[in-house]
Amino acid sequence: MQLTRHWQQLGLVNLALAPLSALFGVIVWLRRYSYRHGWLRTWRSPVPVIIIGNITAGGSGKTPLVLWLARHLREQGYRPGLVSRGYRAHQTDWPQLVSANSDPYQLGDEPVLLARHSGCPVSVGPDRPAAIRALLSTHSCDIILADDGLQHYALERDIEIAVVGAQGLGNRWLLPAGPLREPASRLHQVDLVIHNGPTATGHQMHWHPPTVVRLTDAGTEQHARPQSLAQFRGQRVHAVAGIAYPEHFFDLLRAHHLIPEPHPFPDHHAYTPDDLRFSPPLPILMTRKDAVKCQHHTLPDAWVVDRELQPDTAFITALHRLLEPYAG
Known about the structure:
By secondary structure, the chain is α/β, with parallel strands linked by helices. It is built from ten helices and 15 strands. The protein folds into two domains: 2-205 and 311-326, Rossmann fold; 211-307, no CATH class. Helix 9 links the parallel strand 13 and strand 14 (302-306).
């Protein structure tokens, strides 16, 4: 968390890390050059691949966009399948197919979240081509959504979508002096860029009003009736967020007139019962990503906050244009 604050500015810490950033930039350039010129092998899927990723470290809003794309493509008559890396998963035998009841500690919290809420088959593994082959061997998918695969150049792609988070590009320096995984110029090479935050130009995510569902019902959310977050208006609540930028979640609650007692945890945190014992006893509100890891804990007054996104009309139009060559 301390380093991410430095990523939004230029100071002595950034200057001290600049040599490492320069070395990182050389490695990034050499790696991509090697793939583009055939020195490193790539694999092309037999069905079209849409990459959804970002060029910054930390959360940007990719997962909500992947879920929206999965639903939208189904509505358009496609049979999408999803692949993900499974960051911080403890499984050693890859790839793995993911179900709504899979263990998030073994296969990763985000893949399980995708399996629960996308309505699509999900395959996970650090080798994305292998994950796709496993998916296609068991499901008749006709298009693939690759979550967080922008820098996974071993997988050839047909459409690239980059998400810029609410924190923007920070100081625009490469890791570790800044938040960038690749130079900012990489955004000019993708097919679509969408912003999860205010932007003067470009496509933007719009969010529906947040809702809540009881944690005990969240695993079967398609059968649980979401309720308005407004029922907690003016109340003190314990706010749990184990995401890249927990303050974004706390700010969301404040914006809707809740009074959160913030409990930030590291991204992809593995929760224990002691982590969730708070005083005084108040309702506990958490993100969907946290919920997949907390459902086995006994928390009678715990709620999952959800927000559905809606890309702007111009983004949807541009997406349909890019999909035209692959339409049945």
